[in-house]
Amino acid sequence: MKFDADKMTGYFGEYGGQYIPEILRPAITELEAEFKKAINDKSFLEEFNYVLKNFVGRPTPLLFAENATKALGGAQIYIKLEGLANTGAHKINNAIGQALLAKRMGKTRIIAETGAGQHGLATASACARLGLDCEIFMGEVDIARQRPNVYWMELFGAKVTAVTSGTKTLKDAVNEAFREWTARKSDTHYIIGSALGPCPYPDMVREFQRVIGREVKEQIFAYGNKLPDVLVACVGGGSNSIGFFADFLEEKEVRLIGVEAGGKGDNPGEHAARVAGKGADMGIVQGYKSLFLQDDSGQLTVTHSISAGLDYAGLGPELAYLAEEKRIEFAKAYDDEVLNAVKFFAKHEGIIPALESSHALAEVIKIAPKMAKDKVIVANMSGRGDKDIFITAHALGGDTWVQFLKEEVARYGNE
Ligand SMILES: Cc1ncc(COP(=O)(O)O)c(C=O)c1O
């Protein structure tokens, strides 16, 4: 469905809204007004599309995964290679859109939160390209597990600030970014990296990510197919999935599957599956009403995922609504299934999917063999897995990788 900014309410059923402290209201009101204008402004859209083409590298390819299709022996599998976008993930689409919007509003400084580091990396890159100052808030735990992305962000000229409160992960980085925005609104715009937060963020992020599904529709037709039978995407906060699904929501014959982090197991604290894990309740957190994994007093609970990008305890409000409406089905993939998917698609297709995206690919491995050979599945590879080498090589490469790291450390020690 085409987005009508004038009818934007910020609500998806009872989810969404704009639950913000009074002090942030002027900044959010300004953002909402500017977004409504920009998304209908031909010159803004031309500039956005120009940057997507010439800097991000769009359109990203849609790969017919012939070898995986043969090996699994069922439905035809296509993979949207969003990880081939500049900086290695879909996050750049939204970062560029919001950075251009910030420039329109006369802002000179950008702040952002990051979990896996991909949104921080995309934001730092967009700021370097567009000449904006940049500060990224990142939990100390995430800094430790995604060190390569911290290095790249700093190379792009961004300041990376370690967040040491709470669980030192994404939710704490979001809190810190809001605190900073509250303190400094006049020259600063806060780029939220997923389809969540107070209105207008969920609508805005979806519109900047909608390009993924729009391209898929054209590309799947160009292969000579009709509409796909199933689309599969991983779901953290929900930006790659909603961008991928948006242009298919009204095609009721297309099944849409969102895959959450099943983590190490089904007990509280072992996963981050809000819908598929059935443990999430309605709450209001970080400016919006949605489903959150929370304790009895409404505090977000500890989560776990092998992928830093899928361990957020909340779900974007539009996805919560579409789950309730049963338009999107939810599944989960356990950490070991995810590692298996990385191995399977690397070996059969020569691609390195991010751990986040490998949740979607793990679901493909489960459902493709049960489907007829004339059916079509499209999975979104939201990111590239180079950033995960310290996790995947340790898990899959075993002793030789550890030995390599020890030798590297010894070599540095001798310098
Ligand atoms: C490659 C990749 N895919 C998916 C996600 C999950 O975010 P979202 O659900 O907003 O797409 C992340 C988050 O960092 C990511 O880095």
Cofactors, ions, other ligands: pyridoxal-5'-phosphate
Beta-sheet strand percentage? 15-25%
How would the global form be characterised?
globular
Task: Classify the secondary structure makeup into a structural class.
Answer: alpha/beta
Outline the structure in words.
This protein is an alpha/beta fold and 415 residues long. It folds into two domains: 12-55 and 90-205, Rossmann fold (3-Layer(aba) Sandwich), CATH 3.40.50; 57-88 and 210-393, Rossmann fold (3-Layer(aba) Sandwich). It is 43% helix and 17% strand. The chain contains 16 helices and 14 strands. The strands form four sheets. The protein has a six-stranded mixed beta sheet with strand order 3-4-14-9-10-13, with helices on both faces. A four-stranded parallel beta sheet has the order 7-6-5-8, with helices on both faces. Strands 1-2 form a two-stranded antiparallel sheet. α3 (66-72) crosses α13 (335-349) and α13 (335-349) packs across α14 (355-367). It is globular and about 55 Å long. The relative contact order is 0.15. The mean pLDDT is 96. The structure holds pyridoxal-5'-phosphate.
What structural keywords apply?
14 strands; Rossmann fold; 6-stranded mixed sheet; 4-stranded parallel sheet; binds pyridoxal-5'-phosphate; 16 helices; 415 residues; globular; alpha/beta
Furnish the topology, listing elements before pairings.
Elements: E1 11-12, E2 15-16, H1 25-38, H2 42-56, E3 62-64, H3 66-72, E4 76-81, H4 91-104, E5 109-114, H5 118-130, E6 133-139, H6 140-145, H7 147-155, E7 159-163, H8 170-183, E8 188-191, H9 201-209, H10 211-222, E9 230-234, H11 239-245, E10 255-263, E11 281-285, E12 288-292, H12 317-324, E13 328-334, H13 335-349, H14 355-367, E14 376-381, H15 389-397, H16 399-413
Parallel strand pairs: 4-14, 5-6, 5-8, 6-7, 9-10, 9-14, 10-13
Antiparallel strand pairs: 1-2, 3-4, 11-12
Bound molecules: pyridoxal-5'-phosphate.
The site of pyridoxal-5'-phosphate (PLP) has 21 residues, from helix 5, helix 11 and helix 14.
